[in-house]
Amino acid sequence: MTRPLLVMVAAAALAFVAGQLAWFPTAPHAPLDSQLGGLAIYVLSAGAFLLTAHQFEDLRWLARLTWAFLALGALFIAGWLLPGVDRLTRPLFQFGATANAMLWLWIVTLALSQALFNEKLARPARAALLGLTLATLFVAFVINGEWKSGYLPAFVAVGVLVALRSPKAALLMALVGPVLALYISSQAIASDEYSYSTRLDAWIIVLNMVRESPILGFGPANYYWYTPLFPIRGYAVQFNSHNQYIDIVAQTGLVGLAAFLWFMGSVALVAWRLRWRAPLGFGRAYIHGALAGVAGMLAAGVLVDWILPFVYNIGLNGYRGSMLGWLFLGGVMSIERMVQRQAAATAGTGGETARIDRTKER
Predict the structure, then answer these.
(1) Given pLDDT bands bounded at 50, 70 and 90, which one contains residue 39?
(2) Could you tell me the sign of the dihedral formed by the alpha carbons of 312, 314, 316, 322, in that order?
(3) Which of 103, 124, 128, 258 is deepest in the core (most CB within 10 A)?
(4) DSSP code of 29?
(5) Residues with Cβ < 8 Å from 162, sequence gap 6 or more?
(6) Phi, psi of 121, rounded to the nearest 5 degrees
(7) pLDDT for the residue numbered 140
(8) Do 271 and 332 touch, CB atoms closer than 8 A?
(9) pLDDT in tens, 265-300
């Protein structure tokens, strides 16, 4: 996991250097502070992942982080549902964090994974976590349903968790899931058709731009300043792609996108291998939640740049929410290191026992 992460950061750094070239002589670069801000998002995201991966050497600390986050999440959702509570909770939460798909995704993912897979939790606690999941989905889908990023990634994560919990449910979802996904996505598009169609136009234009520098892109933030050269629906204005993957290609090229997908794939692969090796209870439930979290994050990236915020869209203010995904994915590496240490200790104990037995035989 570390190698693709470092490659991704290195690609962003090289793209920053390449971005100083005059790709379009008639258009200016982004201001240097915007370019540095865009580069910082890559560096800080990698740092958030490595922070959790290497600082939490005891599962209890990872559990404390998770329970604290879910407690704050429950307080946040209570502000939506209980009259008068929002006046107390609103000052506690920042808009950049709450208006971010990652917050809603990880509340649902962590709560439901512990409810379904943590067999050491008492039934009332698991029921409370299930209630938090349902309450969050209710707020996102019913009360705040116009905001697609609040519920679509969370639904993807729920589908993955249910499939992991029950093979029969997985089979049913394989049959019914595509139809349900088509219905939900079509409803989402129908309710905001103009936004969807203009985003498609933006994707096509930005991808055509990237042909000028497909390997490393234009560097952090720069492509936004080049877009007036490529009018969208007849208007020569600045715009961004509103898509994580196209943003990555435009800023760090195919190298950056390959490194990002390599990283996400490696996290998913490690989590898959740890499903039955992680400690029973919280650890094993956390790993299942991380698998679902990867799926939800990848889905969120199609909607907007929620994972690696673009400085002229979600921005550094929105990174307050985006960093949650990187922090919680770092927990996968933390648990992997714990499992490896335990395996090494067990192997060492076994070897010492064998030496003692051979000595006794002599």
Answers:
(1) very high
(2) negative
(3) 103
(4) P
(5) 116, 169, 170, 173
(6) -75, 145
(7) 95
(8) yes
(9) 999 999 999 999 999 999 999 999 999 999 999 999
Strand partners, 235: 232
What pTM was estimated for this model as a whole? 0.90
State the alpha helices, DSSP H only, in the chain.
2-18, 32-55, 59-81, 85-89, 95-98, 101-117, 123-138, 152-165, 167-190, 193-210, 223-226, 244-274, 282-303, 315-361
CB 286 within 8 A of CB 120: no
User: Do the beta carbons of residue 53 and residue 334 sit within 8 Å?
Assistant: yes
**Per residue, what are the HEC states of 198-240?**
HHHHHHHHHHHHHCCCCCCCCCCCCHHHHHHHCCECCECCCCC
Contact by Cβ (8 Å): 273, 7? no
Q: How many whole angstroms separate alpha carbon 107 and alpha carbon 290?
A: 12
In sequence order, the β-bridge partners of residue 290 are none
Which DSSP symbol is given to 30? P
**Cβ count near 207 (within 10 Å):** 15
Q: Are 44 and 323 in contact (CB under 8 A)?
A: yes
Residue 166 corresponds to which amino acid? S
d(CA 88, CA 86): 5
Least confident residue range of 138-152, 183-197, 279-293: 183-197
Q: Is the pLDDT of residue 59 over 80?
A: yes
Structure tokens at 280: 């029973």
- Interhelix angle for 152-165 vs 167-190, to 10°? 170
Which residues have C-beta within 8 Å of that of residue 85, sequence separation ≥ 6? 78, 79
Domain residue spans of the chain: 2-361
Phi, psi dihedral angles at 20 (to 5 degrees):
-80, -10
